Amino acid sequence: MPRRNPPLTRIPVSSILLAAAILLLAFALRAHRLAYDSVWWDEGFSIWMGRMPIAQMMLHTASDAHPPLSYALLHGWIALVGNEEFALRMLSVLFGVLTVAAAYQIGRIAGGHRAALAGALLTAVMRLPAWWSQEVRMYAPAAMFAVLAMWAALQLFTTRRRQWPWSILLALTLGAGLLTLYLFVGVVLALNLAFLYVFLVTHNRWRLAVRWIAAQVGALILFVPWVMFAYQYLPSWAAPQAPVTFLYVIKLYLSAVFLGIATDLDRYLPLLIVSLLILIGTAAIAWRASRRRERVVWVTLGIGILLPPILVYLLSIPRGQFNYPTPSPRYFLLLSTPVYVLIGWGAASMARLASHRWTRFLGPVILGGLVAIALWSLSIYYPGLHLVDDYQSIAATLEAFRQPGDSVVLNNDTDWPIFNYHYQGEYGHDISQTQ
After folding, report:
1. Are 20 and 124 a contacting pair, CB within 8 Å?
2. pTM for the whole structure
């Protein structure tokens, strides 16, 4: 049966303090060495788009591989904070911290305060979300919209009263996610599959269906006008790539979610197997600990865990003009939070279900082990951040000798976004390119 969640006033003070500490930890890990890495191609392209006037940016985005919302947000952020690496990346940091806060709320619906703290802690320390919260790209805001959409969906699934505000939040976050990243359609699919399950098992299915359909329509109202505009400019391309196996995608998924590493996967195979066993074991514990009314949360999280590797594999299959890139860890970021929340839920439930005294400590041991793995992976990640002279000296020389009417011509298409970040010219994007 649907239930009302406990009000905020019932959260123990200790839980509030621990949640605040986890958010501070998440912020610290995402802000650490934030300006110690040079702007790379994709970041330079985002900044180039963000510097454009909105109308011009929309036109360019229509022929690009991503929708315009993240570039529009970046446009406003640049006007507010400027162009330094630290300031530009801070927007993604804030999205990343909000994702951790939303993970806490999902964990609270699933298994209470302890599950919420455990899930938020894993979301805070894992390398994948920390890594992409340091990039001037659309993945951090898309991940935040995904977690907020899941939170809103779970509130609709598990509460009786005041459902329309959650329906509105679901519409806004689904629409915003689709306008941020086309791959967000995977989040929409996952939540709608969860709705189908809830529709079959709940008693007030038709009331829920009205609110759910209204949210989907609201999201489409936000997204469809952009699709109609961009369709006429949508490019086609043939990208050569070698086909990948589903086993490779599974290994990449586990490595991305637990280690944040995308290369030399077989080297970390023992860790990946252990991580998979932990995920399966804690998921089983969470199912056993859940009451009937909480099973919809478990199913929603489970769909969010199972769907990404399947979709990424299907999208990676070479086909005609619209070949997709080789699978990448960032494609798993959107639905990585369900993994951390479900593990946190299961680990937090172990003490209550323990039949022996020593097994009561198994949950904290599992969490401690995963946190240790995450910190080890971050210890490899941070030293890899370093500043190099990416056209900084060239840009300074050109600016010193520039005369009215001069143009900058690049003879390749490999590094122009990086050069453009350092050399803004008179208008910030007046660079000609030749192949």
Report:
1. no
2. 0.92
